[in-house]
């Protein structure tokens, strides 16, 4: 649905994007991870058509796109309803949702003065504003930044709802835990390229436990596929793959058979944070 | 509601909710009150001074002549003073209000979402110029006419209402153009305050300077000179008005081109 090919962008001597390519499926959420200045905002504004790339192309298959910047600027003297009504004048009449529907979707009413709104409410208004032209694709630049935990949870629920409605979302955030919960796929933007892409479901389905025993595992009968010996009195149990639940049940059953031999069990599952550190270290 | 109507509605909300209408009225009423009160009171004070402290005033005739020039006791003369004070002080207020509106909006990314929603930059720019020029000019028209009636009561009435009406219209038109030029220049200049300064300098210096030349009548600033001298023949301002309109169109073209080319990145 979103196809970005070999995008490059420099500001004078400073090359921000060297060669960025990515693909986002329909009705899915793609997370863009990168440190400050990695080029996430630059990439998104190029994709939104607000900035020109030096090289490369993007294709949305004729679908409608909408972009929400990290700190959305509003006309503070308007109310939420007036603002959405104003934006709706830019779209074809009757082509999208109504003002009330949009505001209800993000949990706002039309009478709130924008100048009196909290950061979280502004982000929600931004989402409503981005939905005015009923887009198929949403580009959201750090939508959860500076939100409190409750605000982040609310926003993630809204984004989850939008995915269920069939919209494709490309978002960036520094909060990797949010990415793990929300995204289907994440890409690490590092040194001007997408240096690694991770399927979040696979990552979440891969659990690694380190089991310390009170005797040498070589003396034992290891009949479980998920188990391997990694050292003196140490076992590693890795659970992943399509039959994740079944494998986990097998491993737990086998572990319970060890009974009193277990000294400790440590979870060594890798998170996006670990992967990000790996990417940066490489 | 089409795009232009929606933008105009938004800009009217901005103008009214930031109380710019009240500010404009207060500035103009302040100028009017200042001119009228000093016109009525000052010459009397000087006469009193001449009687009570004759040693201080060595040449009463020269003083009276000066007083008559500075504080004319007739409506025509007072309207000229009022016009030139509006041209100087109110113009400064207009420039100061108008110079930061658009650069502020664009730099703070307020155009991003509307443009993304399909609203054209051309419409946003046109609407801003329209609302602010009308919003700044209408109070001039209203206060000028109120001033005429107040002056007619307090000073010797030697001016037809038709003359005052047409001068109030020309002065309003001049202020509208000043607002438009300031708004559009602020987009073109790197620092918007330079736009305000250049417009203020032109408005303050050019009308007086150009009276020394015959071709001065063709320049747009003659619109102000016309009201400073309480002109009566509207044919005199056709050429400067056309040139002013042309200048505004050219500025609009370049300002829009700059807006279209600008990469909105923060």
Structural overview:
- Chain A contains nine helices and 13 strands.
- In chain A, α2 packs across α3.
- The longest helix of chain A has 16 residues, at 149-164.
- A six-stranded mixed β-sheet of chain A has the order 5-6-7-3-8-9, sandwiched between helices.
- Chain A has 282 residues and is α/β, with parallel strands linked by helices.
- Chain A is 32% helix and 29% strand.
- Chain B is mainly alpha-helical and 266 residues long.
- In chain B, α8 (161-188) runs antiparallel to α10 (222-228).
- Chain B starts with a helix and ends in a 5-residue tail after the last helix.
- The chains are: A alpha/beta (282), B mainly alpha (266).
- Chain A binds chain B through residues 41-42, 45, 48, 50-52, 66-69, 71-75, 77-78, 82, 85-91, 126, 129-130, 132-133, and chain B through 1-3, 5-7, 9-10, 13-14, 17-18, 105, 108-120, 263-266.
Question: How do the strands and helices of this protein lay out in sequence?
Answer:
The complex is a heterodimer of chains A (282) and B (266).
Chain A: E1 2-11, E2 14-24, E3 29-33, H1 40-47, E4 55-59, E5 65-68, H2 80-88, H3 99-105, H4 119-130, E6 137-141, H5 149-164, E7 168-172, H6 176-182, E8 185-190, E9 193-199, H7 200-205, E10 207-213, E11 227-231, E12 234-239, H8 244-258, E13 262-267, H9 272-281
Parallel strand pairs in A: 3-7, 3-8, 5-6, 6-7
Antiparallel strand pairs in A: 1-2, 1-4, 8-9, 10-12, 10-13, 11-12
Helix pairs in contact in A: 2-3
Chain B: H1 3-17, H2 20-52, H3 60-70, H4 75-98, H5 101-107, H6 112-116, H7 121-154, H8 161-188, H9 192-210, H10 222-228, H11 238-261
């Amino acid at each position: 649905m979103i196809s970005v090919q070999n995008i490059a962008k420099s500001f004078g001597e400073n090359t921000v994007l060297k060669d960025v390519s990515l693909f986002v499926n329909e009705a899915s959420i793609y997370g863009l991870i990168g440190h400050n200045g990695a080029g996430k905002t630059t990439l998104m504004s190029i994709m939104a058509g607000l900035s020109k790339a030096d090289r490369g192309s993007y294709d949305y298959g004729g679908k409608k796109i909408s972009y929400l910047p990290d700190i959305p600027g509003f006309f503070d003297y308007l109310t939420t309803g007036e603002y959405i009504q104003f934006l709706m004048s830019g779209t074809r009449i009757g082509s999208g949702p109504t003002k009330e529907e949009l505001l209800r979707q993000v949990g706002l009413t039309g009478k709130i003065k924008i100048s009196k709104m909290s950061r979280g409410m502004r982000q929600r208004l931004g989402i409503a504003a981005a939905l005015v032209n009923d887009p198929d694709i949403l580009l959201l630049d750090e939508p959860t930044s500076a939100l409190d935990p409750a605000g982040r949870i609310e926003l993630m629920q809204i984004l989850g709802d939008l995915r269920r409605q069939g919209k494709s979302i490309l978002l960036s955030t520094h909060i990797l835990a949010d990415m793990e919960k929300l995204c289907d796929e994440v890409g690490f933007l590092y040194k001007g390229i997408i240096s690694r892409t991770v399927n979040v479901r696979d990552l979440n389905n891969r659990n690694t436990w380190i089991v310390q025993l009170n005797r040498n595992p070589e003396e034992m009968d290891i009949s479980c596929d998920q188990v391997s010996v990694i050292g003196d009195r140490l076992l590693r149990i890795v659970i992943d793959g399509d039959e994740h639940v079944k494998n986990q049940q097998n491993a737990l059953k086998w572990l319970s058979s060890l009974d009193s031999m277990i000294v400790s069990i440590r979870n060594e599952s890798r998170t996006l944070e670990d992967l990000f550190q790996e990417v940066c270290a490489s | 509601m089409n795009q232009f109507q929606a933008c105009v509605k938004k800009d009217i909300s901005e103008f009214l909710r930031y109380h710019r209408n009240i500010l404009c009225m207060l500035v103009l009423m302040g100028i009017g009150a200042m001119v009228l009160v000093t016109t009525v009171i000052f010459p009397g004070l000087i006469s009193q001074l001449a009687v009570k402290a004759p040693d201080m005033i060595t040449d009463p005739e020269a003083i009276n002549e000066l007083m008559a020039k500075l504080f004319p006791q007739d409506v025509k003369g007072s309207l000229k003073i009022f016009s030139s004070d509006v041209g100087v002080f109110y113009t400064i207020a207009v420039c100061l209000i108008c110079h930061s509106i658009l650069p502020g909006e664009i730099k703070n990314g307020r155009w991003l979402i509307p443009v993304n929603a399909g609203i054209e930059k051309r419409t946003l720019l046109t609407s801003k110029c329209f609302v602010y020029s009308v919003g700044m000019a209408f109070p001039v028209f209203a206060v000028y006419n109120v001033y005429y009636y107040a002056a007619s009561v307090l000073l010797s009435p030697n001016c037809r209402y038709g003359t005052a009406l047409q001068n109030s219209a020309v002065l309003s038109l001049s202020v509208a153009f000043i607002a438009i030029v300031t708004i559009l220049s602020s987009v073109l200049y790197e620092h918007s305050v330079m736009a305000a300064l250049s417009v203020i300098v032109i408005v303050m210096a050019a009308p007086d300077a150009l009276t020394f030349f015959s071709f001065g009548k063709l320049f747009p600033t003659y619109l102000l000179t016309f009201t400073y001298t309480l002109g009566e023949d509207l044919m005199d301002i056709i050429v400067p008005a056309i040139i002013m309109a042309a200048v505004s169109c050219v500025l609009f073209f370049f300002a829009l081109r700059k807006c279209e080319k600008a990469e909105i990145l923060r």
